[in-house]
Write a structure and sequence with these properties.
With 415 residues, this protein is an alpha/beta fold. It has 2 domains: 139 residues, D-Maltodextrin-Binding Protein, domain 2; 201 residues, 3-Layer(aba) Sandwich (D-Maltodextrin-Binding Protein, domain 2). Strands 5, 6, 7, 10, 11, 12 and 14 form a 7-stranded mixed β-sheet that branches. Strands 2-1-3-13-4 form a 5-stranded mixed β-sheet, with helices on both faces.
């Protein structure tokens, strides 16, 4: 610096530093983040409570199954949730029980025919091929005829049906059907108007018949065929065909008594529709389908649908669904639906009569459940006659003749 010059001193600068704020203190961020965090925590808690918290880390196995009416069980949301806790998902291909039995099932993990005849066809074929097959019997459901109150009352007035009257019940939900008298009316080609349906406030000039699914594909239709064969022209002895010739003759005799053709799912769906009363006033169904419908109706409306009722054939015939595992994964699922308490409980809630390990109906759980839900309990009354199934080979001959469907193993006689 030169002499005489003033020393220049730079003035200090005041620097204003911005306060560093973290993401956590930014209001905009918190507004968006906290609700998202709450949702995540809620989901974690829900997964923990349901036992599914580790599901994202577990391998989920999807099993392929083939069945008809029993798909109601696997398509139930609660059943799916329970299976997910065991890391299982089920994908169902809809197919009638007999159609399943005579078709290719090599790509499936399990099949679930609705009755023993179709099940026996499958296990016999698997044994012939030395292929895996393990049978589980988790629950049963009787064959019934679903109808409407007016038709049940007309049958009662004609002496063909009898009401099951429970204490304090003005409108009975269940009736016992005299199958022999019913088939006599069918054989005589009587019409609903002939037995006084007009007295119930409606008219129907159609023949008295029970609409069943296609007998070529559905177990319920095959079972109803066996019931008709047992009842018709059997007298008090309750004889069933014992030879090829007897089976062929009986099939030709009962063919006019059978009205069938719709897919199994469509028959009961038609019954529940608004047009059902005019299209198909009596349909072949399973008890669990009707009970499950009434339980849903009660839950939604706080009352039962008293206009839809059941006819129980006096000659008892219980179909026994057979879950047939076709590999080890299928067997694991079979073990679960047979033994897991949650799945057994849910099967009962869907109207099935669950079985104990000995194969017998497990106590009165279904009775208590229906009572608790306000649905009348059916009394499965009987005339002490138990319908007998023809031997499998003979039943197949009869199905082929009645339904004009392809024979199995060349079992059908001339038509």
């Amino acid at each position: 610096m030169a002499i005489g010059e003033r020393r220049v001193v730079e003035e200090p600068r005041l620097a204003v530093r911005r306060h560093s704020s973290s993401l956590w203190s930014r209001r905009g961020f918190l507004v968006g983040f906290l609700p998202a965090l709450a949702a995540v925590l809620t989901g974690v808690v829900a997964l923990g409570v349901s036992g599914n918290i580790l599901l994202p880390l577990e391998r989920i196995i999807t099993l392929e199954g083939k069945m008809a009416s029993k798909r109601d069980f696997f398509e139930d949301e609660k059943v799916q949730q329970i299976l997910m806790k065991h890391h299982l998902k089920v994908h169902i291909t809809s197919s009638g029980s007999r159609e399943t039995a005579v078709g290719d099932i090599s790509s499936y993990d399990f099949v679930f025919p609705s009755g023993q005849p179709a099940g026996d066809l499958i296990t016999r074929q698997r044994a012939a091929e030395n292929a895996y097959a393990k049978v589980h019997r988790p629950f049963v459901s009787p064959i019934v005829l679903s109808t409407y109150r007016e038709y049940a009352q007309a049958l009662q007035s004609a002496g063909i049906a009898t009401a099951q009257r429970a204490a304090g019940q003005d409108k009975p939900l269940y009736y016992v059907l005299d199958m022999h008298k019913f088939l006599q009316a069918v054989d005589k080609r009587l019409r609903w108007n002939d037995i006084g349906i007009r007295d119930q406030g409606i008219a129907n000039a159609n023949r008295i018949l029970a609409q069943s699914p296609d007998v070529c594909g559905a177990n319920s239709a095959g079972t109803y065929l066996a019931l008709v064969a047992f009842t018709w022209r059997s007298g008090a002895s309750g004889e069933v065909p014992a030879t090829d010739e007897e089976a062929d003759a009986r099939a030709r005799a009962i063919k006019p008594l059978m009205e069938q053709g719709l897919p199994a799912a469509d028959v009961f769906r038609t019954y529940l529709s608004a047009e059902g009363k005019g299209i198909a006033p009596v349909v072949v169904a399973y008890e669990h389908q009707f009970l499950a419908y009434q339980l849903r109706y009660q839950a939604e409306s706080q009352k039962v649908d008293s206009e839809r009722v059941l006819l129980y054939p006096a000659s008892q015939f219980v179909t026994q669904p057979q879950f047939i595992a076709l590999n080890k994964d299928g067997d694991r699922l079979g073990e679960l639906i047979t033994r897991d308490p949650e799945l057994r409980q849910r099967a009962m809630e869907l109207g099935f009569r669950i079985l104990d390990p000995t194969g017998e109906v497990a106590g009165d759980q279904l009775t208590r459940f229906l009572e608790d839900r306000g649905v009348p309990v059916p009394s499965v009354e009987s005339d002490d006659t138990r319908s007998s199934m023809p031997r499998l080979r003979l039943l197949e001959r009869m199905i082929s003749i009645v339904g004009d469907c392809p024979a199995v193993d060349g079992s059908a006689g001339s038509r």
